[in-house]
Design goal:
The chain is of the alpha/beta class. It folds into two domains: 172 residues, Acetylglutamate kinase-like (Carbamate kinase, 3-Layer(aba) Sandwich), CATH 3.40.1160; 145 residues, 2-Layer Sandwich (VC0802-like), CATH 3.30.2130. Helix content is 35%, strand content 26%. The chain contains eleven helices and 20 strands. An eight-stranded mixed β-sheet has the order 3-6-2-1-9-11-12-10, sandwiched between helices. A four-stranded antiparallel β-sheet has the order 13-18-20-19, with helices on both faces. Helix 8 packs antiparallel against helix 9. The two termini are 42 Å apart. The relative contact order is 0.10. It binds adenosine-5'-diphosphate (ADP), aspartic acid (ASP) and magnesium ion. Adenosine-5'-diphosphate (ADP) binds next to loops.
Length: 406
């Protein structure tokens, strides 16, 4: 008997018909004798409409109350699936995040899971129930409801799988697995059978939203076997596993595109010790994560400092930058939101050279200007204008020989 955690995303629970299909699948697994914990997302589009509703209630919705509101999306689907299973004669029980023992820190809207007490779920399983857990949510130590950031149900599922020492965490979604790039952007993308935690983590960080970043961090840290697969067919999907040697022979294994960043430039700040600290400390205090940072030294003791933040944090980061800009004597603060970050990722880059040159040549061949560049051992990222994002992804996919055979 295996213990399986199965997570179904928004499009897989989009309406009652879809939830019935999820019930078919869950039922089948249970009939095979496995113990099943289901983790659900809200119906697709529901979290977005709840956010819009909150924005009608207040221009700056209170974060604590926003989490209470957003958590209802997953509460709805969990209750509906449990009802359907029960009406079919199965033992099933729904659990909200706190009932599933998911304890988080206090950061509303992007809380981190600190601990999971799996007692309630384990009791339900031992009693023959299918446990249906509302994803994306937990509670802090004072019992306040928190949410885990967009796409957070993936993290709920992997964290629960790790706490319960499940045999597998299956992520059922609307594509057949993890592809060499977003199959919706590039029709010649290929499905990857096995990918290392490390590469998957880079892909998630760099914009492949098929798995939330924290879910991959969790899986990597606790060695949770993750199977990303389609909820619409029975095909085997992608196994996310520990690094295996055959992967290193592939130089580039994937291309990603992230449209969720914005750029801020401090124009002509004094080139002196302490200036960067003055700029980045207030951003850190406001819990704004900064991604790429580039400094261009000019003549005359001045420098331009450019960095990127996520679009969610952009308005706050801009306000802080305007204020700090005056303090440090910047001539001007420039911003751009219509940007995209395209990245090539591969473990094999550790031991191969020439990847950057191929990337820059491929972008140049399409006349795409590179605004910012950053690299790590296993990836290279370029910021370009948003309007070229899809063209850049397809061009790079083909330049690195990732296109499937026609
Ligand atoms: P769910 O609602 O099931 O959580 P998401 O929309 O969050 O699904 O993630 C699945 C989507 O991720 C796919 O529909 C696809 O467009 C997108 N995606 C981006 N990059 C990739 C990739 N490399 N492989 C597979 N899907 C990707
Ligand atoms: N419903 C949440 C979202 O749309 C969480 C999830 O689907 O994973 O971001
Ligand atoms: Mg998702």
């Amino acid at each position: 008997m295996a213990l399986r955690v199965q997570k179904y995303g928004g499009t897989s629970v989009a309406d009652i018909e879809h939830i019935n299909r999820v019930a078919d699948r869950v039922q089948k697994s249970q009939d095979q004798g496995d113990q099943i914990v289901v983790v659900l997302s809200a119906m697709s589009g529901v979290t977005d409409s709840l956010i819009r509703l909150a924005e009608q209630a207040s221009k700056t919705p209170d974060k604590r109350e926003l989490d209470v509101l957003l958590a209802t999306g997953e509460q709805t689907t969990a209750a509906l699936l449990a009802m359907i299973l029960k009406s079919r004669g199965y033992k099933a029980k729904s659990f909200l995040g706190f009932q599933a023992g998911i304890q988080t820190n206090k950061i509303s809207g992007k809380a981190r899971i600190m601990d999971i007490n799996g007692t309630n779920i384990l009791h339900a399983l031992a009693d023959g129930h299918i446990a249906v857990v509302a994803g994306f949510q937990g509670a802090d130590e004072d019992g306040a409801i928190t949410t885990l950031g967009r796409g957070g149900s993936d993290t709920s599922a992997v964290a629960i799988a790790s706490a319960l020492k499940a045999d597998v965490c299956e992520i059922f979604t609307d594509v057949d697995g993890v592809y060499t790039t977003d199959p919706r952007i590039c029709s010649s993308a290929r499905k990857i059978d096995r990918i290392s935690y490390e590469e998957m983590l880079e892909m998630a960080i760099l914009g492949a939203k098929v798995l939330q970043i924290r879910s991959v961090e969790f899986a990597k840290k606790y060695n949770v076997p993750v199977h990303v697969r389609s909820s619409f067919n029975e095909e085997k999907g992608t196994m996310v596993v520990n690094e295996s040697s055959d992967m290193e022979s592939v130089v580039v294994s994937g291309i990603t595109c992230d449209m969720n960043e914005a750029r801020i430039t401090f124009k002509k700040v004094p080139d002196q010790p302490g200036i960067s600290a003055k700029i980045f400390s207030p951003l850190a205090q406001a819990e704004i994560g900064v991604d790429m940072i580039i400094q261009n030294t000019r003549s005359g003791g001045e420098t331009d400092l450019t960095f990127t933040v996520t679009k969610d944090d952009f308005e706050r980061a801009r306000e802080i930058s305007e204020r700090v800009g005056k303090e440090v004597g910047a001539h001007e603060i420039l911003t751009a939101v219509e940007i995209a970050k395209v990245s090539v990722i591969g473990l094999g880059m550790k031991s191969h050279s020439g990847v950057a040159a191929t990337m820059f040549q491929a972008l140049a061949s399409e006349n795409i200007n590179i605004r910012l560049i950053s690299t790590s051992e296993i990836r290279i990222s370029c910021v370009i204008l948003a309007k070229y994002a899809e063209l850049a992804v397809r061009t790079l996919h083909s330049a690195f020989g990732l296109d499937k055979e026609k």
